[in-house]
Write a structure and sequence with these properties.
Layout: E1 4-8, H1 12-23, E2 27-31, H2 36-42, E3 44-48, E4 52-56, E5 60-62, E6 76-79, H3 91-95, E7 108-112, H4 120-125, E8 131-137, E9 141-144, E10 147-150, E11 156-161, H5 168-183, E12 187-190, H6 195-215, H7 219-223, H8 229-247, H9 254-270, H10 277-284, H11 290-304, H12 309-328
Parallel strand pairs: 1-2, 1-6, 2-5, 3-10, 6-7, 7-8, 11-12
Antiparallel strand pairs: 3-4, 8-11, 9-10
Domain Ketopantoate reductase N-terminal: 5-162
EC number: 1.1.1.169
GO molecular function, one term: 2-dehydropantoate 2-reductase activity
């Protein structure tokens, strides 16, 4: 029987996952916000190094979860919206209509979002539902409402239950979702403990995302701006390594950092670069994930007594830019 999936937050990543899940035979309901009217009328048009150029649309589309008919039961709710921990209403409240009245404890929640320490509020709100934490490697941009570019064939999702000690049926749910994503044409890996993978992604995100938002440079572009650029990026990555070590997270070390840093170095050598999500958001005048990616890390550093002067500086500056953008409405 085809899986029935609710996709919450269908920007660039969500739009690609919509196509991928439909390729795997799933029925997909999309919650679209800023791009709702365009997608409802014309669907998505994607130009992808992996999937080619395709036009497609959700099986069902709504502006909010509360608009979905109350008798709908989903196998998975996949959250690809940006992570804003202090949002009001909270993410847990925004999802509530699809998970209660009556309680739907078999619906798995997939948090395909950036940052660290983001799972606990959802786990507390829905303790009986399988909760799957996901780390995404998928370079994509929504250049205009409903128009998606995916310039590199990279499409990899890393999955694991939260907590890692979750019961076997929750692990089975993660495995089934990984198989579905592979059937749709991407790569997927299931980890016994996803936090190592989440922290390895943080090494990239905590360095490149705020630097891009502040400098307005792509990753490859920033590295060629001055002899100091490499040291700034590497220094932030090493502070994340130190924090992970103090927090007891395994697999986050200098070797892993160098492997990830090589991607941006190659782009610099080729004269190319990628605009990560915060830079994309700044260019479009949208709020960006400063708290989930950077704020949570520096606050944990203060709590654990880890000195992080570079990341604290980057956080303070990025938070200032964020507040000005929110207050000015752009």
């Amino acid at each position: 029987m085809p899986l029935n999936i609710l996709l919450y937050g269908v920007g660039s990543v969500g739009a690609i996952y919509l196509h991928q899940l439909q390729r795997a035979g799933c029925t997909v309901t999309a919650i679209c916000r800023s791009n709702h009217d365009v997608v409802a009328t014309s669907g998505f048009t994607m130009t992808s190094a992996l999937f080619g150029t395709v036009t497609y649309r959700p099986d069902h589309i709504y502006r909010s979860v509360s608009d979905i008919p109350s008798d709908q039961v989903f196998d998975y709710i996949v959250v690809t919206a940006k992570c804003f921990p202090d949002s009001n209403p909270s993410l847990a409240e925004q999802l509530r209509p699809a998970l209660t009245n009556p309680p739907r404890r078999t619906t798995a929640i997939v948090l395909a979002q950036n940052g660290i320490d983001i799972e606990a509020p959802i786990a507390a709100a829905y303790p009986d539902n399988p909760l799957i934490s996901a780390v995404i490697y998928l370079p994509a941009t929504q250049t205009a409402p409903g128009i998606i570019t995916h310039p590199e064939p990279l499409n990899h999702i890393e999955l694991g239950t939260y907590p890692s000690s979750a019961p076997q049926e929750h692990v089975d749910s993660a495995t089934r979702f990984a198989e579905t994503m592979r059937w749709g044409g991407g790569e997927a890996t299931v980890f016994e403990d996803i936090q190592g993978a989440r922290w390895r992604k943080l090494m990239v995100n905590a360095a490149w995302n705020p630097i891009g938002a502040l400098s307005l440079c792509t990753d490859g572009g920033f590295l060629v701006t001055s002899p100091f650029a490499r040291d700034v990026v590497w220094g932030v990555m090493m502070e994340v390594v130190a924090l992970a070590r103090r927090a007891g997270v395994e697999g986050v070390d200098e070797e892993a950092a160098e492997k990830l840093f090589q991607i941006s170095k190659r782009r610099a050598e080729l004269g190319t670069g990628r605009a990560l999500s915060m830079l994309q958001d700044v260019r479009m005048g949208r709020p960006f994930e400063v708290e989930a990616i950077v704020g949570n890390a520096v606050r944990l550093g203060r709590k654990l007594g880890v000195e992080m002067p570079r990341l604290e500086t980057v956080y303070a500056l990025a938070k200032g830019r964020y507040d000005v953008m929110v207050e000015s409405g752009k």
